[in-house]
């Protein structure tokens, strides 16, 4: 899985035949359905026979594994839930320090931080005036970010500065991924402006979220 994601991050295309690929989940936490152009990857303990039997007959085989009825069947089969179907965007690391004043913090009680540590390992949290950025290792060990801008600081470029900063906070040669709800047009525009490229969509099948150390 990590090599597949790395291939995509570097601009590589995946084979269209077979369009459906089933791989072992990269960890006990990380079950997922990933959709790329004409190629779908299911990272879960399921068989091709089970998947084929539960795919809806929509007439569009490329979209069927991301179809809500199939995802619901997968939820019931695995005893997990899909939080959302998100678009995936990715960008390479940038050299040097972030062009934004950041303060690393250890307070993991913020709701966005609590959310991040449920999905990611080695989460680091950075505060800027009016915003918050988290960077950690998520699906198959990839670097992932999340950010939040306070309402009174929006529409001033802070979101773009925060996600650009994430590109400076990962190791040289690495890539950082962002997952955005398709309806969140503002965040999509922010990531595009910061040099991120849309590469596909994903549905993560969650286990119960893990509380951050020390959180109530």
What does this protein structure show overall?
With 216 residues, the protein is α+β, with helices and mostly antiparallel strands. The chain has two domains: 2-87, no CATH class; 89-197, Aminopeptidase (3-Layer(aba) Sandwich), CATH 3.40.630. It has six helices and ten strands. It has helices at residues 2-9, 48-54, 68-78, 111-119, 158-168, 185-193, and strands at 20-23, 31-36, 39-43, 81-92, 103-105, 121-128, 131-137, 143-149, 175-180, 197-206. It has a ten-stranded mixed β-sheet with strand order 1-3-2-10-4-9-8-7-6-5, sandwiched between helices. β6 and β7 form a beta hairpin. α5 (158-168) packs across α6 (185-193). The longest helix has 11 residues, at 68-78. The chain is globular. Residues 209-216 have low confidence and may be disordered. This is GNAT superfamily N-acetyltransferase. Residues 146-197 form the GCN5-related N-acetyltransferase Rv2170-like domain.
Keywords:
single chain, 216 residues, alpha+beta, Aminopeptidase, 2 domains, 6 helices, 10 strands, 25% helix, 31% strand, disordered C terminus, Acyl_CoA_acyltransferase, GCN5-like_dom, acyltransferase activity, transferring groups other than amino-acyl groups
Summarize this structure briefly:
This protein is an alpha+beta fold. 25% of the residues lie in helices and 31% in strands. One of its GO terms (molecular function) is acyltransferase activity, transferring groups other than amino-acyl groups.
